[in-house]
Amino acid sequence: MGILDKLFSLEGKNALVTGAATGIGRMAATALIEAGATVMIASRKGEACEAVAKELNAMGAKGKAVGFAGDVGTEEGINTLVEEVKSRTDTLNILINNAGVTWGEPIDTFPYAAWSKVMDVNVTGVFHLSQQLMPLLEAAATKEDPARVINLGSVMGDAALGEGAYSYAASKAAVHHITKIMARELAERNITFNAFAPGPFQSKMTAFATATEEQADHVGQGVPLGRIGEPDDIAGATLYLCGKGGAYITGAILPLDGGIHVNPAPDLFGMHR
Q1: Burial class (CB within 10 angstroms; exposed 0-12, middle 13-18, buried 19+) of 64
Q2: Which of 99, 143, 183, 227 is deepest in the core (most CB within 10 A)?
Q3: pLDDT tens digit string along 107-134?
Q4: Domains in the chain and their CATH numbers?
Q5: Taking the model in full, what pTM does it have?
């Protein structure tokens, strides 16, 4: 076995990626499948997940995908998703809590309902799904090869960048903190918890500012490295944390933001530049 296979192969691994029909979730799921994992893709739109799984399986990669509906915004939805996962596998090597929602509005009109809606999915959903899948994660985990959980945070969870998405930014700060708490408490169960803190990537959530190449280039001008994120940036980080090379890392908040966290732009999406 060569060093690349030793460090990054995921053959024989089972993974669940929430919110994986589009954006960063799909980027991460694609990387896992190409590395040999069997990946369950779940989001509220089950038909979209089935279609994405079919597309990914057509790549001829080492791994395979299966798509189905899964809602992490309610307790009932999470419990249904957990039962669906349990019906397909007894062990879970990798969980990527990617599903998320946002709400953007000026501070003077930002509504009360925008807090519970965003927090339910972005924070409560991350915690409760991880909690309910703990038996499957523990069943897959060993000291030498822990089970891996990656939570989706954001550069907005560290830098003071509201951009009208106040509950979203606060929720991502909470994701970063709960990731560290769970990393500390669950290390003894051989489960690692880390988080991505992405800057701007092309996705459904950021389509208002990155949908076209011209828009993406404009936003990229405010990033220290001069561009927005690309699928390979997510793929590399995913394989690093999920493969053998990431077995000794837990509690990390990995900034995938082109340097924004150390040199934040006046506004993230260039709306005022």
Answers
A1: middle
A2: 99
A3: 999 999 999 999 999 999 999 999 999 9
A4: 3-256 (3.40.50.720)
A5: 0.94
